[in-house]
Amino acid sequence: MIKFGPAPPAAFAPIAAGSALRSIAPRAFAALRRWHERANAKVRLRELDDRLLRDVGLTRHAIAAPPPPRPWD
Q1: In this model, does residue 34 exceed pLDDT 70?
Q2: CB of 53 within 8 A of CB of 60?
Q3: Which residues contact 41 (CB under 8 A, 6 or more apart)?
Q4: pLDDT over 90 (residue 51)
Q5: Which of 6, 17, 28, 32 has the fewest beta carbons closer than 10 A?
Q6: The overall pTM is greater than 0.85
Q7: DSSP string covering 5-61, please?
Q8: What is the pLDDT of residues 6-22, one digit of tens each?
């Protein structure tokens, strides 16, 4: 015979799909916006000449280099 314990606490109750979407959507949109802005910034930096890049402390190599590995990759 299978015995079932008491009902799970309210904290484990299913979340309504609408409320989950409302909390995730703004964060996802913000992340996409940041990625888009970074991509645009790299394009604009590539358009600058070497003198202007030196003025802001960058080199062509620094712009073209891939980002450093993240600890979780």
Answers
A1: yes
A2: yes
A3: none
A4: yes
A5: 6
A6: no
A7: -SPPPGGGSPPPHHHHHHHHHHHHHHHHHHHHHHHHHHHHHHTS-HHHHHHTT--HH
A8: 666 655 555 555 676 67
